[in-house]
Design goal:
The complex is a heterodimer. Chain A has 2 domains: 109 residues, Elastase, domain 1; 160 residues, Neutral Protease, domain 2. Helix content of chain A is 43%, strand content 8%. Chain A contains 12 helices and 9 strands. In chain A, helix 5 packs across helix 6. In chain A, 51% of the residues are buried. Chain B has one domain. Chain B is 21% helix and 25% strand. Chain B has 3 helices and 5 strands; from the N terminus they run ββααββαβ. Chain B has a 5-stranded antiparallel beta sheet, with no helix packed on it. In chain B, helix 1 packs across helix 3. The longest helix of chain B has 10 residues. Classes of the chains: A alpha/beta, B alpha+beta. Chains A and B meet through helix 2, helix 4, strand 4, helix 6 and helix 7 of A and strand 1 and helix 3 of B. The structure holds zinc ion. Zinc ion (ZN) binds next to helix 6 and helix 7 of chain A.
């Protein structure tokens, strides 16, 4: 309820979820309208809107087969400071520099771009040739990497919990958050947030498999292999093959990911368990890729990618997503096809009936 | 994207920081861990920084109140003082540069807790 003592802000007129949806999905005019109302009502909220990227797509435009787009990358050295982006140290076409981390971010961004262009005819994150901006050496002792809506940032780790944050599946993960954002978005909390995380994990894994030309059965299906500190007991951050088994350590505890809805974790931390329950759709994708065989970025990857482009629901639940994957499998491979049958079976095996 | 949750200051403290406080790191890429800082072990300049900046009247300065609604994998920091149930929770994109720099400076003095 509104407090009668303050000026009525837009939050009193429109519920938060509508504002969220307009900002994420509305056209330019609608977003402008919201921005103006917010500016009038509340100056701090105005700055939040201004910080948001200008463009957002319901689904990214698909390139014509004859188009020959060009990648554009920029890598900055954050110099261990908080401010982004830092000092430009390598841009598109320049040779490798002495700093291996800079080169890993540059090459990794190229590998992600390749996957989306060659397999899904998507020209960069926004489908429109967006420059891929990365900052490495972000902050001091920083145990993280993130996508902030406009660029990636990678810490160096503290050497105890994390070491290298520019491992290829991590680069693929972060950039794929950008793909989600420019495909209509999935709100980053609860099940839609877990789907956002899962899409980033799936395409992070596919980036590495595509680069190494691995089949579904040859791949390790790990996210962040080798990035944990030398004394941490674990192999990676997450495993799509065996969610819950990536690490078991005295400092970090046990990998909390479930592989089945029976073990779904209800929590308010981690934005409602977005990095936890993502284990369920992650494992469904893994099962589908195994059933279909061959390269996972092919049939299974197309079903998931098509779903992201078509879901049109930023609050999608696991069931919404699963239903849409079956619909996309049917549209691409035909009713009654093995792809449809296996998509259903993969979801059923993780406890989601479609 | 907007989380809808209030990561700003959710509790006020007494003016004394005490001798120890804990920092819990969560969110991020999905890893959570916790450590405690013994203030008496800090170098003088850092000790003074903590005493000044983490005092009750200054905590509000750390919050920008304009969380980046598009950020994913951002870290959530939770500070708790010894002998207090009060917690200060803030999400990375909502925290000021000052706060983040202070957290980074404290990392070498953080005694990580076993789970
Ligand atoms: Zn993520």
């Amino acid at each position: 309820m509104c407090n009668s003592n303050h000026i009525h802000s837009i939050e009193c007129i429109l519920p938060p979820h509508m504002i969220e949806a307009i900002n994420m999905r509305g056209n330019k005019k609608m977003r402008k309208m919201v921005a103006r109302l917010i500016k009038d009502a509340d100056s701090y909220r105005q700055s939040r809107i201004a910080a948001a990227p200008n463009k957002s797509f319901m689904a990214a435009p698909k390139l014509a087969a004859s188009a020959r787009p060009k990648i554009n990358r920029k890598v900055y050295n954050g110099q261990k400071k908080v401010k982004l982006p830092g000092i430009l140290v390598r841009k598109e076409g320049e040779p490798p520099c002495k700093d291996k981390v800079v080169n890993a971010a540059y090459d990794g961004a190229g590998d992600v771009y390749d996957l989306y262009l060659k397999q899904y005819r998507r020209n960069s994150l926004d489908g429109n040739g967006m420059t891929l901006i990365s900052t490495v050496h972000h902050r001091r002792n920083y145990n993280n990497a993130f996508w902030n809506g406009q660029q990636m940032a990678y810490g160096d780790g503290d050497g105890v919990i994390f070491t290298n944050m520019t491992e290829l599946s991590i680069v693929g993960h972060e950039l794929s958050h950008g793909v989600v954002q420019f495909s209509g978005g999935l709100v980053y909390r609860d099940q839609s947030g877990a789907l956002n995380e899962s899409f980033a994990d799936v395409f992070g894994a596919l980036t590495k498999q595509h680069k190494l030309k691995q089949s579904a059965c040859d791949a390790d299906w790990l996210i962040g292999k080798g990035i944990l500190g030398p004394n941490i007991k674990g192999v990676a951050l997450r495993s799509l093959k065996t969610p819950g088994e990536a690490y078991d350590d005295q400092l970090l505890g046990k990998d909390p990911q479930p592989y089945h809805m029976d073990y779904y974790v209800n929590t308010t931390s981690d934005n409602g368990g977005v990095h936890i329950n993502s284990g369920i759709p992650n494992h469904a994708f893994y099962l589908l890729a195994q059933y279909l065989g061959g390269n996972s970025w092919g049939k299974a990857g197309h079903i998931w990618y098509d779903t992201m482009q078509a879901i049109n629901n930023p609050y999608a639940t696991f069931n919404d997503w699963a239903d849409k994957t079956v619909e996309m499998a049917r549209a691409r491979f035909g009713n009654g096809s093995r792809e449809v049958i296996y998509t259903r079976r993969a979801w059923n095996l993780v406890g989601i009936t479609v | 994207m907007e989380s809808g949750r209030n990561y700003g200051i959710n509790t006020m403290y007494s003016s004394s920081i005490g001798s120890t406080f804990t920092i819990k790191f969560s969110g991020g890429m999905g890893i959570s861990y916790k450590g405690s800082v013994d203030l008496s072990a800090l170098p003088q300049d850092l000790y003074e920084d903590v005493q000044t900046k983490l005092s009750e009247k200054n905590l509000s300065k750390f919050s920008r109140e304009n969380r980046n609604q598009y950020i994913t994998d951002s870290v959530i920091y939770e500070l708790q003082y010894k002998d207090s149930d009060n917690k200060f929770t803030i999400e990375e994109s909502q925290a000021s540069d000052d706060f983040l720099e202070l957290i980074d400076s404290l990392r070498p003095y953080l005694n990580l807790e076993l789970k």
